[in-house]
Amino acid sequence: MIFFPFFILFSISTDPISQSGYYTIETKANSPIDVSLSHGKYDCVFIWSHTKDNDAEITVKAGEKSKSFELKGETTAIVKGDETSIKVNSDTTIHVWVIENNVCDMNSLLYTTPNYAKDTFKIKPDIKNLCIFFGSHNNQSKISLSSTSSEKSSSSKITVHSIDKQSQTFDSLKSKTFNSHFFTQIANPASEYDLEFEISGNEPGDAFCSVVPIHMVLVDKEYEEEVIESNSIQCNKEAKENNSFLPFMLAIVAIVAIIIIAGVLHLTGYFKKIRSYFRGEIINDGPAKVEIDPKELLRMDEIDGLDIEDEEEPKPEVEEKEN
């Protein structure tokens, strides 16, 4: 079982980090952060904020070799070697994980959000181990993580590495709350997962979230492995709640409409007629009642001998009088 201590460092230059754990470092522009990896016993994961003026330079040493790499457009990297250092070209905060070298490999992901992220993702085949890190200044969070596919689900295990508890292994995570920084490791992962990550205590802001593969830096090369085959990420929790509320409202409207229609059919007697029809009964509502005005009828003996042609009566001639 692994236990990670937590450190916060606020200084322009610090002594090299030499113990496993989680570190948050406020650093000045181009001020290096040095990390001793105990001759390869540990790996180091750097997480930093990235803007157009926030590129990083990482130096890694292994044996007699040493090489520096410029990382532009990146926000995170995992370094393997004997020792390493990072410097960023602007004032920023750098989060550092120093972990055992057999915990995470080249297949790792970083989720970044100030408030909320929900993702359904499918990973590439043949991945045997997957680590998921979270870039957040706040250490109070809640996570749900579970497989949505049957492949490997019985043998897949999720291990949570936290800075205040020993490592814990689960089949899945359901609204698991943490009061400290953590990352997850999935051994023998399934092909598809649902992830929901929520940070508590932060002020609501613009809905932003992202997921990126973690860059790999070795003494002889740096590269990035594509981990996700496809995904659908959502950054707004309100949209999730609204989407779940809409089917509920539609169901209520449908039920009310059915009740109203049933009441109308009952009052008009249609239910009785429908039942009789399906039972094969003849529906007899009695003889038709027709009201006739007797004044508008002629007796048959009064119309005998009448000529149906209408003849005009001759008009009397009028004699003209002479004046």
TrEMBL record:
Protein name (database record): Uncharacterized protein
Organism annotation: Tritrichomonas foetus
Signal peptide extent: 1-20
Acidic residues biased stretches: 303-314
Chain ranges passing through the membrane: 245-271
Keywords per UniProt: Membrane, Signal, Transmembrane, Transmembrane helix
Region (Disordered): 303-323
